[in-house]
Amino acid sequence: MLSFLFFRMKGGIIMGRKVKITMPEISQKEIEISGKSVKINSLISLENYETIAEDIRNTILYNGEVIDKYALIKMRYIKDVLELCTNIDTTDLEGEDFNKIYAAGFLAENILNFNDTLKSLEKEYDKWVIENCFGIIANKLPTADEMEASMVKLSETIENLPDDKLELIGKSIVWNNLPALGQQIAPASHISTTSEE
Hints:
Layout: E1 6-9, E2 12-15, E3 28-33, E4 36-41, H1 46-61, H2 69-85, H3 95-99, H4 101-110, H5 114-140, H6 144-159, H7 163-177, H8 179-185
Antiparallel strand pairs: 1-2, 3-4
Helix pairs in contact: 1-2, 1-5, 2-5, 7-8
């Protein structure tokens, strides 16, 4: 056991000796695209992530006019990253330009957390799907009046069943829920069919 490497303190185990470090700053690279020098950040900052996530929520996820939300997330993400993390002017670029492999490729090569950030945004989509599923389920749940009407119909159906059918239903309920008890109360045997012989 390696417990001798740690000091026990109130609240759990902590390392004995702490060291101070400084995290690297977000630096800029210069790359060449189509014969032009482009500046690009090495990381997507937390502030830029929040801006991108908010834009995707407002423009795609919670916009009722957008139909294929999942497909548009990556294109919008690329557009936002180009606007926030590079000096590329995106005003003349169209939707298909953001869908080209080249744009995602050079961003992924030069921004360390490009793919991780995209995965986090895909989790936003998953969250949106779950939120909407619960909304759909809630809309499909019957009201108290509908449930009461359904119970009345079920009661009428049961009252109008012949006794032999009721006995068969009772035995099947016992067999399905308590097979061991079913063998004692309503013994049954397996009858082989022609396909089993």
